[in-house]
Amino acid sequence: METSKQGSWIQNTAGSMFSWVKQEQGGSNKEGEMYQTVTEGLQTLYTKKLLPLEETYLFHDFHSPALEPADFQSKPMVLLVGQYSTGKTTFIRYLLEQDFPGMRIGPEPTTDGFIAVMHGENEGVVPGNALVVDPKKPFRKLNAFGNSFLNRFICSQMPNQVLQSISIIDTPGILSGEKQRISRGYDFAEVLRWFGERVDRIILLFDAHKLDISDEFSEAIKAFKGQDDKIRVVLNKADQVDTQQLMRVYGALMWSLGKVINTPEVVRVYLGSFWAKPLQNTENRRLFEAESQDLFRDIQSLPRNAALRKLNDLIKRARLAKVHAYIISYLKKEMPSLFGREKKKDELIQRLPEIYTILQREHHISPGDFPNVTKMQDMLQHYDFSKFPSLKVKLIEKVDKMLASKIAVLMAMIREEEAKQPPAMVSGGAFEGSQDGPFGQGYGEGISAGADAEDWIVSRDKHRYDEIFYTLMPINGKITGVNAKKEMMNSRLPNTVLGKIWKLADCDQDGMLDDEEFALAQHLIKIKLEGYELPTELPNHLVPPSHRKNPTADALYNHVED
Question: The EH domain covers which part of the protein (predicted)?
Fold first, then answer.
């Protein structure tokens, strides 16, 4: 008896001790589920909470195939979509700075299939049929699109630094006309929808000379409905038109997109020439540089936001799965037990928009969470409603609990993981050295002008600033804040900006400005008026010579002035 008591005490003590160890290692919850990483947590939640609901109500037949481990563990993916000869393949070549296996570039429609450009130790091509049986790749569910698609799908593998952080999906160039849509042999829009749900960024490429959106391109863009936050637009070959034409082209593009992408927000458009050739028209060079850097920063941030994106996609999927369950179970409930099933089925399909409204009110669901009614009506034609499952409240409650509490645990874990080990940004290829050196954006301009000059850059215009300074009645070589304010207000800059300039220029913080400090203030006003940002702290190269702590530097600057 004593031995059994002692044994149970040891077991309880050990259990509590090991549970403490587990809490130290990762996120856990009351049900004893352990998540060592965010990826593992997402996978566990999907498998245990959401997947049973999806399988019960035939979600995979109606909407999207089941997710697999590779979907959670894959690197961020970028999908490129556009009409033929808009520079999709060239854009990938520009980012990687090397050719990839299977690449073909030309003015005619060259890329006739989907190419997944991914990292691999050895350079080579993996055909589609072999790709969809590889459990390490997130493409297994593409098997459903059949041989017509798989014969036009390859994975191009190569050792490249950019591909260590992201994968890029190249797509066939889209042509106008009905013939191409029929002759593909697979549902192009559905394949794009499949990729759109799984990628981190969708880039739509347009040519400055090809702004018309064909019917198939319009369908392709509509396939990304619900993924609006992932879409970016690139207006390529923008150097082939002058400034006036570029303004017209940009306006026409926004008008065309507004008719296809039905969102109240304006989609982000990047202008530029994304290939390693000289610019044909250099008058917008600074604009193109700024735009390309913005696009690079957006792509570089993908690894950092990958876990958050997967979490967001899982929440979207869970909401759709819940709504789908309500629709299917409602249709089952309305079916007669014996006679008149076909007639009732046709009636329910016709009444589907009304059923959506009933479910919205009954379960407090947002209209935006419901699937496309026309598509749903077409798909329901092929099913026997009497075989649909009834509403299983426990499955719904599991998903509700996941959304209410489990997701919050993973959100906290994402922040913890980023704090411990921030994900590496995309580097290599076109991303390498784009920020540093004399060819980095903004180098030698604005606040950084004069950083590598021997003289104090402000001294070049100081004789003009001195003339103004001495009209402001300096006392003991300094002017008061009141007198300085009158002159600085002539710039018409807001008081908040002028206040910041005053703090930067008043190096000794005595509430007055000497001739060098006043010249510095005027220089900072000039920088701001030219459209550049002000720093939070004054850079060393802008500190007036008389206020520097290094006597050697003072002597050097005084010598230069002499």
Answer: 461-549
